[in-house]
Amino acid sequence: MPTDFSLQTEKAPISLKFLVVGGGIGGLAAAYALRSAGHSVLLVEKTDGNPRISQTCDAVKMYNGGTGLYIGSMITQESFLQHLGADYRFVKHGDLHSLLFKAASDIGVNFLFNTEVTSADTHSVTVSLRNGDVLKADVIVGADGYDSVIRAAISGPADDGFNPDLHQKKVWITFSLPAEVLQQDEDLHFLADQSNWVIALGDGFIFSGNLAPNGEELVVSIQYDTDRPLEEGDDKWKNQTSPLDKWGIDYSKMEPRIVKLLRQAKEYSSRVCIVRPNLDSLVCDNARAVLVGEAGKPLLPSGHHTPAMALEDAQTLGILFSKIRHPDQVPQLLTAYEEIRQPRALTIQHYEMQHQSMLACPSGPIMEQRDAILRQALAYRDWEEMDEATFKMVWGDELDICSYDAAEKVEDWWTQWGSYFDRSNERRKSIDLPTLVQVSVSS
């Protein structure tokens, strides 16, 4: 089980200046964790600070403490949200964003909204703004999402010569419908059951729908493979009012009730995501800038673990920097962050790509094999009755991944390296002590 959030209540004896670029879930969580550790934090966000996708967005599916099982996009750091007072079985993206924003504001994080960062210099530890201003900090935290600007300062201009139409692309569409509309439709009333989380899989798509915590609306998301050439703005979140047909969805591949539901969407949010490769590093060469959330782990938005990874990053960074004793230790701590988080990032990215490929696999032998496994699992009334072989086949990888505890990983690192870290600080103190030397100069 995840450890108690009190592991991060320690405050550092010195206060560094952190500049967090990006005000999504990853940026807000990192800002909150670093401020909790006693540091000065300025968060810069190019929008007005509201969630980047509308309130009618996909629910963030997290740990169900009642059953002890991890479901969907699980937040392994349940204590992080418990500390904030969250009811975290199903939390809408916008609600989680608002919760984190309030928590960060309440403890003194500073914000600059409607302020766009255009570039970063990791040597001078500065960022340049669209209006010409330059901001300086002790550490830059890149939390600016899937299309990160800070990423280029760490991994280089990877997009030079990048042609998005030559890479795999996926559309993510999300919307909500009032529960009362569903209750009046004999084909769709089953969706208005709070206990149901409906998933539909098909050739090139994944559908997910569940009631929001208030029970008043069904939150829907669909991920759909597309080979449609990108139009301007397609790769940015936009609120749409036109029919879903613009995305070329092949309804013939879908169950009729799902088609009926999708055709009722009048307003929705959408964007095209281009599948990006893994990053070699999450920290710049001189260890003064670091990537968190989707900026460092370009998981697709509909991934099972995207919000969980952002909160894990935040808690890791916060606990590490609660232990700093001297500014010269910044590179050591960012290197520790890299050592702790990069293996986890690669594991999750590999899992997500394989998992989504399996769920949205084309018709044929692979789909038939997948469906046979799922039918075998669904034959049991409850997973507690499931035989061990079937349980491992269906849930084994997911449960292995979800047993990860970010706070525990930091403590493991500290157990191994903390004494060295403290000794290096003691040596620095002895070197830093002022020494009076009298020099006689004679002609």
TrEMBL record:
- Give the record's keywords alphabetically: FAD, Flavoprotein, Monooxygenase, Oxidoreductase
The GO molecular function terms of this record are: FAD binding; monooxygenase activity
**Which InterPro entries does this one have?**
FAD-bd, FAD-dep_Monooxygenase_BioMet, FAD/NAD-bd_sf
- Indicate the segments annotated as coiled coil, or none if absent: none
Domain FAD-binding residues, every copy: 95-345
Q: Which family does the UniProt entry place this protein in?
A: Belongs to the paxM FAD-dependent monooxygenase family.
Protein name (record): FAD-binding domain-containing protein
Q: Please report the organism this UniProt entry assigns to the protein.
A: Coprinopsis cinerea (strain Okayama-7 / 130 / ATCC MYA-4618 / FGSC 9003) (Inky cap fungus)
